[in-house]
Amino acid sequence: MDYLAHLTVIQHTSADYLGLIEDHLEGRKIRFTYHRPFTERGGVPTLESIGDGLVLLGGGPWGSAGPRNVPTLVREVELAHGCLERGIPLLGIELGAQILALAGGGRSHATPLALTVEQAHRVDDDALNGYLPERFVSIAYGRDRFELPPHARVLARGEDDEPAVFQLGDKAFGFRGHPGFKPAIAEDLVMEFEEAPDDPAPMLVQAREQARAVEEALIPIMTGLVQLTGWMQRRDPAP
After folding, report:
1. Cα separation of 88 and 68, whole Å?
2. Three-point CA angle 125, 207, 118, nearest 5°
3. CB 175 within 8 A of CB 97
């Protein structure tokens, strides 16, 4: 029996997950499996075990440029680098985007833990096959920022004019914010860890107010991602 893509998803905390993206994948019959390296029996998957794509999620208070680096940073950078070399589709979100940038030859720099809600704007009309909205809400919970390698293609910028969405090669995409963000993700992260952003309440209110806008923007974003990654193409089952 034919089947569609099977994605490998790496979580860095129990609270941060695919969010609204889950519904879009399930609606397209794209399977996904969570891997949780932070659990006792968890671990970073091998390159050989990656299916039709890799998704690296956010990390809450974990970063990539300082004393609070996610413990599996080196192994995940190596895994992402292997995916880039093999042309395996890759989606990096928040901390995952930092890992993708590092894997592609970029860097990251330290910034404080924060919850941010901002308007991003498209700077490439062909971004995501033309489906990236001209303006969209970008909500991020985390620390540190990526510095892109010279060959990266910037697709959108934030209110600070820094890259908000980028592309490496044909099938790897990084989002500074979480395109499938749900307010409960931030609320649970605040409760899960002792460390939290300073006075997150006002930003949580803004995040709730922008929930519908996030849902609406995700529709074209997922359309473009699925087209460029080939996740909707029929695949023959393994023998």
Report:
1. 29
2. 40
3. yes
pLDDT band at 239 (very low <50, low <70, confident <90, very high): very low
Could you give the 3-state DSSP secondary structure of residue 219?
Answer: helix
Asked whether 229 and 6 are in contact (CB, 8 A), the reply is no
DSSP per residue, 129-160: GGTS-SEEEEEEEES-EEE--TT-EEEEE-TT
Mean pLDDT throughout 86-98?
Answer: 98
Domain 6-229 is of which CATH architecture?
Answer: 3-Layer(aba) Sandwich (3.40)
Kindly report the pTM of this predicted structure.
Answer: 0.96
For residue 184, which of 65, 25, 17 has the smallest C-alpha distance? 17
117's tokens: 């809600």
Number of other CB atoms surrounding residue 168 within 10 Å:
23
49 within 8 A of 88, measured Cβ to Cβ:
no
Query: What whole-number distance in Å separates Cα of residue 208 and Cα of residue 190?
Result: 15
Q: What is the rounded distance in angstroms from the CA atom of residue 131 to the CA atom of residue 25? A: 17
pLDDT tens for each residue of 127-170: 999 999 999 999 999 999 999 999 999 999 999 999 999 999 99
Percent of the chain's residues with pLDDT above 90: 92
Between 2 and 170, the higher pLDDT residue: 170
DSSP 111: -
